[in-house]
Amino acid sequence: MSDARPDATTEPPATPPPGARTTPADAPETAPPGTPREASVDVIQRELTAFARRARAAAARVHPEIPLVSYTLLAHIEERRGCRATDLAAHYLLDKSTVSRQLAGLEKLGLVERRPAPEDHRVQVLHPTEAGLAVLATAQANRLAAYQERLRDWSGEDLARFADYLLRYNAAGPEDLPASP
Amino acid sequence: MSDARPDATTEPPATPPPGARTTPADAPETAPPGTPREASVDVIQRELTAFARRARAAAARVHPEIPLVSYTLLAHIEERRGCRATDLAAHYLLDKSTVSRQLAGLEKLGLVERRPAPEDHRVQVLHPTEAGLAVLATAQANRLAAYQERLRDWSGEDLARFADYLLRYNAAGPEDLPASP
DNA sequence: AAAGAACCGTTGTACTATACAACCAAGATT
DNA sequence: AATCTTGGTTGTATAGTACAACGGTTCTTT
């Protein structure tokens, strides 16, 4: 309660927007049994958006150590031991230049290492350094812990299903992601 | 267009991860029935993160009309007819200055209107203009349509449950959101 | 009532993330 | 060889954001 925040902590509109909605969805706080598809989709849209929106704001707080979004890239590099910059760009829908600069930053911080590929002399194979792995490990641990905490009260079944839904949602590919600003 | 993203799903796993863990976008795994809590949480964490990351990238494509992230703010203003700038800042964990500038942009585009409050002369009550409402309606429609498309194959039950999970997840409040970098 | 604290919003400054375009270097095609 | 293609870097520009300092307001306290 640091500040006066009368309206809110949660995204779902306190008051169902009267009219002006394109859908009859009144954004129920908890989806009742007979929720029509449109309503559910609307809620999903809004909630995912809310998540994405807040995620950015919260990011800095979680690992201020890694000053960059490039934490993600580092994670990816680690995940598949050794990858090219282009892979990262493709995977995250980023421009080559962006990735290039991010990597430059990571390298300057001593978190990644680039090695020329023996075969193709154009590519550089990226590897996390020791420091990179360490940073990554703690960051990951922190984040996972935070999620564990947040999801503490959930039943195992719900967790599994939620995870499943998310996988399914994301599996559709990044192309047409209609998400939040 | 020589995009940097020919495909995000086809990138060759330069070195396939030895473990069971793959990247969501590459290998949509399905959470097996007996998934332990930790695994589920891990998946949830990763998938939500992935979503957040991609969301930003996709944002511009969806509504290029509204050049700003401020679409969100506009939506919020509309949602609760009339609100103050500080509310927005608090709600989205943004700095006052950021909100101020975003609003300036929206105003310059003729999408919002600020009126001094009769009572308190410090505050300005924000209202969407006609144009603002229109823009918002179409943007919302587009986005919803995109989601509908993406979720086309889902059963009504799954949609309802997914929506429910998201609500539940987000309801915990923005404070400790441990999300993606 | 005067002084001070608290609040709302703007402006100055700075930095990150990002895109697009132009470019260079190394392979691949013809 | 000449030309396309691909991987990466650099130049330039633009959002979005934060932090700090500030000028008005309103509320509290003396």
TrEMBL record, chains A, B:
HTH marR-type domain: residues covered: 41-171
Any single Pfam family the record assigns to this protein: MarR_2
One Gene Ontology biological process: response to stress
InterPro entries in the cross-refs: ArsR-like_HTH, HTH_MarR-typ, MarR/SlyA-like, WH-like_DNA-bd_sf, WH_DNA-bd_sf
CDD domains (UniProt xref): HTH_ARSR
Region Disordered: start-end pairs: 1-40
GO molecular function, one term: DNA-binding transcription factor activity
Skewed-composition ranges (Low complexity): 20-29
Top-level taxon of origin: Bacteria
Name of this chain's protein: MarR family transcriptional regulator
Native organism: Streptomyces termitum
